[in-house]
């Protein structure tokens, strides 16, 4: 315990974020791998190790029971909380649906509608308000993402981004459930939360109550769909209902997609706009590229036009390199093993790969790895991808995120729509992001920004 105290004191004294402390340790490790013995955790930023864990020896590194227990009350047997046959079945089913053109068009339409009818009017209202255009962009993006993912997953519109910024009981309960579940994951002594859960007291009682609210709404949506028929609906739940009869299982599956698609998108958009507010020349280049691809009187880019914007794609990838929404991901070894760098992994050990640290490794990105430089992704103006095992923002290998392409497109639509009409100024741009503890990288205190309408915009 003394080592744990010293480590904690060291990072809290010298680094604003725990992920920066881990980055420091990994940067100074000859193998880009460290072993935090007191936590029973091997942490790596070595691409060879990442490929080994996520692809070569995939079967030996599942999420494992410790992780499943932490999120089990919220996600049940959903795809992000299971291994083996349960995971494989959901993976195949989701892969089939998410690869279809119809679901892509459906998601594209949802995002465009939310931008046109809610996001842009809200930002216009903020720009013209007596408060000087100040607004918390992180809160805006959390509401935006929640509306989108609920429409996409359940066919339900919580209306969180309405101009009055209403309080949604469902959104609040979901937020609280994910927050308290994340606290379980970061507990030094897991036995404490397990005892509180058994006694139904404290934070575990609050977690149970929050999950009950989420479940009640999910159950009601499923019930109504079964009554009214779902065969003509396009949302994910309706599609899954065609091949899954168990309502509890359906709820677990769709709740997992809400968790994956809400906070990750909100986190990605928040740090993206923080970075671009600090790099106005990049914003200018995005506008120049969009002007070359889109018609002068065109309000929204088409899916095909977005694919032509190589610079914008590079900007999004560079932002995700430096600020991945999920800063680290862990697996648990089934059997004794050796990683490619020679690190011994004992059976049952937690093995964590660290995308946040990997985005800051000179061995991967060069001496300018700390700089925001979208051009590193371009060659003669064309986007050039790198190995996903060097930048596993969306995981990689067999568990690569099925929603990767839709997420990237959503970020680009938001960027184009907002920068076409507004200038964004961060209240304290010189202050580096400080993250709140949680499953995803959310900024502590939000992102206060000043919104100004651009002049002479068609």
Automatic annotation (TrEMBL):
Heme binds at residue 401. Its cofactor is heme. One of its GO terms (molecular function) is heme binding. InterPro entries: Cyt_P450 (IPR001128), Cyt_P450_E_grp-I (IPR002401), Cyt_P450_sf (IPR036396). Signal peptide: none annotated. Pfam families: p450 (PF00067). CDD domains: CYP86A (cd11064). Keywords: Heme, Iron, Metal-binding, Monooxygenase, Oxidoreductase. Belongs to the cytochrome P450 family. This is Cytochrome P450. The lineage of its organism: Eukaryota, Viridiplantae, Streptophyta, Embryophyta, Tracheophyta.
């Amino acid at each position: 315990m003394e080592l744990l105290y010293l480590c904690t004191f060291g990072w809290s004294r010298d680094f604003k974020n725990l992920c920066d402390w881990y980055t420091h340790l990994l940067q100074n490790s000859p193998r880009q791998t460290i072993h935090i013995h007191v936590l029973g955790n091997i942490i790596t930023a070595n691409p060879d190790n990442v490929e080994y864990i996520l692809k070569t020896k995939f079967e030996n590194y599942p999420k494992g029971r410790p992780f499943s227990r932490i999120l089990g009350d919220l996600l049940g047997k959903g795809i992000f909380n299971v291994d083996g046959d349960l995971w494989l079945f959901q993976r195949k089913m989701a892969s089939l649906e998410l690869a279809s053109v119809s679901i892509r068009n459906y998601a594209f339409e949802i995002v465009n509608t939310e931008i046109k009818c809610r996001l842009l009017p809200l930002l216009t209202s903020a720009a013209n308000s007596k408060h000087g255009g100040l607004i918390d962009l992180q809160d805006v993006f959390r509401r935006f993402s929640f509306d989108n993912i609920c429409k996409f997953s359940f066919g339900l519109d919580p209306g969180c981004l309405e101009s009055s910024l209403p309080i949604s009981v469902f959104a609040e309960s979901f937020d609280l459930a994910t927050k308290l579940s994340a606290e379980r994951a970061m507990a030094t002594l897991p036995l404490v939360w397990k005892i509180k859960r058994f006694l139904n007291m404290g934070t575990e009682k609050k977690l149970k109550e929050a999950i009950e609210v989420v479940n009640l709404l999910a159950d009601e949506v499923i019930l109504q769909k079964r009554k009214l028929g779902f065969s003509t609906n396009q949302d994910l739940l309706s599609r899954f209902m065609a091949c899954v009869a168990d309502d509890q299982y359906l709820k677990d599956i769709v709740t997992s997609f809400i968790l994956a698609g809400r906070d990750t998108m909100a986190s990605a958009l928040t740090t993206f706009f923080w970075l671009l507010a600090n790099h106005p020349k990049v914003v200018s280049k995005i506008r120049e590229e969009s002007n070359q691809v889109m018609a002068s009187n065109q309000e929204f880019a088409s899916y095909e036009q977005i694919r032509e914007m190589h610079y914008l794609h590079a900007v999004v990838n560079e932002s995700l390199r430096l600020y991945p929404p999920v800063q680290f991901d862990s697996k648990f070894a089934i059997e004794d093993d050796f990683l490619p760098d020679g690190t011994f992994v004992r059976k049952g050990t937690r093995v964590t790969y660290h995308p946040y640290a990997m985005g800051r490794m000179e061995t991967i990105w060069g001496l300018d790895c700390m700089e925001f430089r979208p051009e590193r992704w371009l060659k003669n103006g064309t986007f050039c991808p790198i190995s996903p095992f060097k930048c596993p923002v969306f995981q990689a290998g067999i568990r690569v995120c099925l929603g990767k392409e839709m997420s990237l497109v959503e970020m680009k639509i938001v960027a184009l729509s907002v920068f076409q009409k507004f200038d964004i100024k961060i209240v304290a741009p010189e202050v580096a992001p400080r993250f709140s503890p949680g499953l995803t990288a959310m900024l502590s205190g939000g992102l206060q920004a000043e919104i100004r309408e651009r002049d002479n915009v068609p």
